[in-house]
């Protein structure tokens, strides 16, 4: 069953009763408790996500409880509290920011625990069976470019986590809402009439944030990993012409190894994984100011290589 | 160890650190991987390999290189073993 096949009241009911279990990429996530407005946003943003009716508790990766604030904060300047099996580093948020808190909290759960993967701070998208990693630092325009590519029909594997499985050489999909920040919200709203955006959460620790709903194709492809063919380091610079040029492999290795959340924890496995990834992929640097130009340039890269028969392989199976 | 173009990357499992090394570093470590050598012996072998290497210049830098390798946990000097 898909989440959008349930009415909002039914979602709220499940959360109150046994918890709502969602299959989010390779993870089973149970959300319980109740915060006003959260079931509705979960339904809107995770619409095509599979609901697991009776999960085997031992297979659930993350148990998340979203509750109201304590004491007076249940009513006065109402708060939302994120809780899970481990002790999360979050102070309560205003109640109407509960969805943003849920998203950051789930990020935290994954980053802290999913060490079966080498986790890159990277957007990952797939086109014609080939995946591209867009690893970047905050402020580089990664999420905005990722959103634009998805709105142009690319399959979103993830905006935040490149979940790389060294043993298979595949990136696992984790399609979740794309958090757009500040100016990017209006840029994407104007960019495409297909963009479905949630409410703007104002004045968060990252400024104003609104989430872009993943495309149906992306959510339905949640269980399909993809083989990486390209690593592109994007950088938004106001006013520049689009520029895509090869990036030295050694430099790419340095950037990627420092970009992975758990590189050091992985030891030799991480070193070999990053090196193998760099060996297998074509590595580029992308400078852009126009989303249209950047999307067109990346599409051309994929399509030219498709015609030449180079640049990666077909979608893989786990 | 992996190499791309002129750059070499070495993972040290003992420390968990990854090092970016230049060609000379790799030559020195390559010699020390196979043999226990004094600084003089390293200079002499490197000078034999390449006529363009100026022995005195190499000697001046070698001690610094060796200290750095030791600090990075890539080599152990005899003095450390005493």
Protein described:
The complex is a heterodimer of chains A (318) and B (82). With 318 residues, chain A is an alpha+beta fold. Chain A has two domains: 3-113, no CATH class; 118-308, no CATH class. Chain A has helices spanning 8-16, 38-45, 98-113, 142-151, 183-191, 216-220, 249-259, 263-266, 268-280, 291-308, and strands spanning 20-24, 27-33, 50-51, 62-68, 79-84, 93-94, 118-127, 130-135, 155-158, 161-165, 170-172, 178-181, 201-204, 207-212, 227-236, 243-246, 282-288. In chain A, helix 1 (8-16) packs across helix 2 (38-45) and helix 4 runs parallel beside helix 5 (183-191). The radius of gyration of chain A is 19 Å and the shape is globular. Helix content of chain B is 54%, strand content 17%. The longest helix of chain B has 17 residues, at 55-71. The relative contact order of chain B is 0.15. The A-B interface holds A 248-250, 253-254, 257, 264, 267-268, 271, 275, 278-279 and B 2, 4-7, 9, 11, 13, 16, 18, 20.
Largest sheet of chain B: 3 strands, antiparallel
**Biggest interface:** A-B, 13 and 11 residues
Kindly state the percentage of residues in helix of chain B. Answer: 40-55%
Strand order of the largest sheet of chain B: 1-2-3
CATH top level class name of chain B: Mainly Alpha
Q: Secondary-structure element order of chain B, as H and E?
A: EEEHHHH
User: Which geometry of chain A do the CA atoms define?
Assistant: globular
Number of helices of chain B: 4
Helical content of chain A (DSSP H or I, runs of 4+):
25-40%
Write out the CATH superfamily name of chain B: Coenzyme PQQ synthesis protein D (PqqD)
Mean pLDDT of chain A: 92
Task: Give the total of domains of chain B.
Answer: 1
The average pLDDT score of chain B comes to 86
The main sheet of chain A comes to:
8 strands, mixed
Radius of gyration of chain A: 19 Å
């Amino acid at each position: 069953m898909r989440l959008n096949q349930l009415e909002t009241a039914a979602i709220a009911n499940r959360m109150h009763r046994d918890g709502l279990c969602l299959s989010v990429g390779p993870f089973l996530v149970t959300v319980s408790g109740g915060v006003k407005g959260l079931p509705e946003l979960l339904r809107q943003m995770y619409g095509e996500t599979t609901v697991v009716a009776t999960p085997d508790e031992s297979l659930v990766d993350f148990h998340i409880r979203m509750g109201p604030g304590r004491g007076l904060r249940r009513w006065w300047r109402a708060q939302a509290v994120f809780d899970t099996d481990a002790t999360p580093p979050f102070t309560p948020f205003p109640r109407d920011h509960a969805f943003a808190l849920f998203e950051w909290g789930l990020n935290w759960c994954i980053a802290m625990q999913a060490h079966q993967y080498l986790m890159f701070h990277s957007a990952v998208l797939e086109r014609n069976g080939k995946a591209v990693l867009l690893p970047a630092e905050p402020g580089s325009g990664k999420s905005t470019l990722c959103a634009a590519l998805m709105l142009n029909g690319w399959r979103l594997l993830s905006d935040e986590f490149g979940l790389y499985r060294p043993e298979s050489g595949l990136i696992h999909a984790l399609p979740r809402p794309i958090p757009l920040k500040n100016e990017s919200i209006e840029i994407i709203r104007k960019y495409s009439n297909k963009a479905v955006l949630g409410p703007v959460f104002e004045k968060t620790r990252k400024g104003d944030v609104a989430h872009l709903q993943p495309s149906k194709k992306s959510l339905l492809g949640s269980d399909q990993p993809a083989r990486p063919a390209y690593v592109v380091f994007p950088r938004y610079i106001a006013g520049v012409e689009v520029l895509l040029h090869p990036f030295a492999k050694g430099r790419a290795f340095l950037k990627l190894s420092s970009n992975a959340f758990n590189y050091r924890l992985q030891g030799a496995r991480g070193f070999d994984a990053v090196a193998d990834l760099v060996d297998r992929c074509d590595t580029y640097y992308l400078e852009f100011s126009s989303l249209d130009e950047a999307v067109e340039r990346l599409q051309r890269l994929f399509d030219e290589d498709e015609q030449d028969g180079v640049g990666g392989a077909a979608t893989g199976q786990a | 160890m992996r190499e791309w173009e002129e750059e070499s990357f070495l993972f040290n499992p003992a420390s968990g650190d990854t090092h970016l090394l230049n060609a000379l570093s790799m030559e020195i470590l390559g010699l020390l991987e196979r043999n226990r050598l004094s600084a003089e012996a390293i200079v002499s072998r490197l000078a034999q390999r390449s006529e363009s290497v100026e022995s005195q210049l190499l000697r001046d830098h070698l001690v610094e290189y060796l200290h750095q390798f030791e600090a990075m946990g890539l080599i152990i000097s005899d003095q450390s073993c005493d």
